[in-house]
Design a protein that fits this description.
There is one protein chain. By secondary structure, the protein is of the alpha+beta class. The protein has 13 helices and twelve strands. The strands form four sheets. The protein has a five-stranded antiparallel β-sheet, covered by helices on one side. Helix 3 packs across helix 5 and helix 6 packs antiparallel against helix 8. The chain is flat. The termini are far apart.
């Protein structure tokens, strides 16, 4: 059954409101505002500041370890780099800074489970690709092809005008709504549902499906979403360690009286109450005389080495659960043995390769839509492919070491530049041209250089000195 525009509006705004708490929760684990460890209801508000010191940010470590291996590097259309479609795709990539735009959407996919990209048309008729934050957009994906949208809604607040704006895409229609902002002091809209009015010129038609592309992570989950309890345990143990250190930063002292001893008197000879805290004030030059049967007891400091060891065990478990190298979680683990570090690195690379294969269809679909915006239709022989820097070779050392091995094995230079060095098609073409220019210049230099003169034969009997 096909939904009407009003039904889509009610459905999408309700779904966005329902999804917002989860989005805010997962985002908080990567920007340093994750939930604080539990506290009693009677604690003073001053403890909030103390609790914030116990927050760690492992979600960002998990996401960045993966995202640093997912680097978009270019686009190819068909087998020819000089076709009109290929040149248009290269221009769209350059003008829209798609390397950055794709990277932002991939970060959201790794953090929240999905990332959104919007394809529109600018005032010059060119394709405009923008990254959209899930805090401002909700998309109902196609269940068969999850990178396509059945319907989408985007909201934002204009604080200057005091208005909230909503744009909804349903099959064939783009609808724009406005409403009065409930709280103009807040930049983000807390509730999406309700009170929207269709603008006078807010209905536009278009062909095809909504111009939104969804980058979905595996199972639609963030990379650390399944270990939130483990992260909460790490933060809780950190809080307990800080409490122990704060409460027992100094040794406590007490006066002990022997059994049967009268102890210390409460009043002096004049009947005045004795302030023993002042009498026994610590000082490097203090000397105390204690009556018989009274001695000073001093507490010992609590050892937190076992707590630290338990926390490190939790970090190790987190690294294993998320396929993140331990050296990223615990810097002191960077010097572990090569054999111990090899397996986590393989797990991370395997995860990166899996995510690349999942994201490629969505990103290629976006390029197809962007080309269609500019009136360029592809035939069946022109396949769009998004290139990524090989996840196993991100640093220059790794790239050139692998390139030397591949060259020694007989691989072609352009194949090495694309699959190992991660060159974009434009970089490969430029390098090929520059190598040809260098060879031509070298040939001319050899031709113009003076040749060594040959020694003329001398008559016999004449010695040449």
């Amino acid at each position: 059954m096909t939904k009407t525009a009003e039904e889509w509006l009610s459905y999408l705004t309700a779904r966005m409101d329902k999804e917002r708490p989860r989005t805010d929760l997962l985002r908080s684990y990567t920007n340093g505002s994750s939930p604080l460890p539990e506290m009693g209801p009677n604690l003073a508000k001053a403890w909030l500041k103390f609790q914030r010191r116990a927050r760690t940010n492992p979600g960002k470590l998990v996401v960045s370890a993966l995202a640093d291996r997912l680097i978009p590097n270019g686009v190819t259309v068909g087998s020819r780099g000089d076709s009109p479609a290929a040149q248009a795709a290269a221009r769209i990539w350059r003008d829209n800074r798609l390397k950055v735009v794709f990277a932002d959407a991939i970060w959201d996919a790794a953090t929240l489970g999905c990332g959104y990209l919007l394809v529109t048309q600018d005032e010059d008729g060119r394709a405009c690709v923008t990254y959209e934050r899930p805090e401002h957009m909700y998309v109902e994906p196609d269940p068969v092809r999850p990178w396509r949208a059945l319907a989408a809604v985007k909201v934002w607040r204009d604080q200057t005008a005091g208005l909230d704006h909503l744009v909804m895409w349903v099959p064939g229609l783009r609808l724009a709504y406005t409403r009065s902002a409930y709280d103009q002091s807040k930049r983000l809209i807390s509730r999406i549902t309700g009170d929207w009015s269709l603008d006078a010129d807010g209905v536009q038609s278009y062909e095809g499906v909504p111009p939104v592309v969804v980058i979905e992570n595996r199972f639609g989950m963030g990379e650390f979403e399944h270990v939130l309890d483990l992260i909460a345990r790490i933060n809780w143990q950190t809080l307990q360690r800080l409490v122990i250190i704060s409460m027992q930063a100094f040794r406590q002292r007490a006066l002990k009286s022997a059994e049967g001893s009268a102890g210390l008197p409460a009043e002096d000879e004049s009947g005045n109450e004795i302030d023993y805290q002042k009498v026994f004030e610590p000082s490097p030059a203090a000397l105390w005389e204690l009556p018989p049967g009274v001695e000073i007891w001093e507490s010992s400091q609590t050892q937190i080495s076992e707590i630290l060891a338990a926390t490190k065990d939790d970090w190790r478990e987190l690294a294993a659960e998320t396929a993140t190298p331990l050296s990223i979680m615990l810097p002191d683990a960077a010097n572990q043995s090569a054999a111990g570090a090899e397996q986590p690195q393989k797990a991370l690379l395997s995860k990166a390769e899996d995510r690349i294969e999942r994201f490629k269809p969505a990103l290629a679909y976006l390029i197809v839509k962007a080309l269609a915006v500019e009136g360029i239709d592809l035939d069946e022989t022109e396949t769009v492919e998004i290139l990524f820097v090989p996840p196993h070779a991100v640093s220059l050392t790794e790239k050139y070491a692998a390139a030397v091995q591949a060259r020694n094995a007989g691989e072609a230079l352009e194949t090495i530049q694309r699959n190992i060095l991660g060159y974009s098609p434009e970089q490969i073409a430029q390098d090929k041209q520059r190598r040809a220019e260098e060879q031509l210049a070298l040939a001319f230099a050899l031709q113009d250089s003076p040749q060594p003169a040959s020694v003329a034969p001398q008559p016999e009997g004449i010695e040449v000195r």
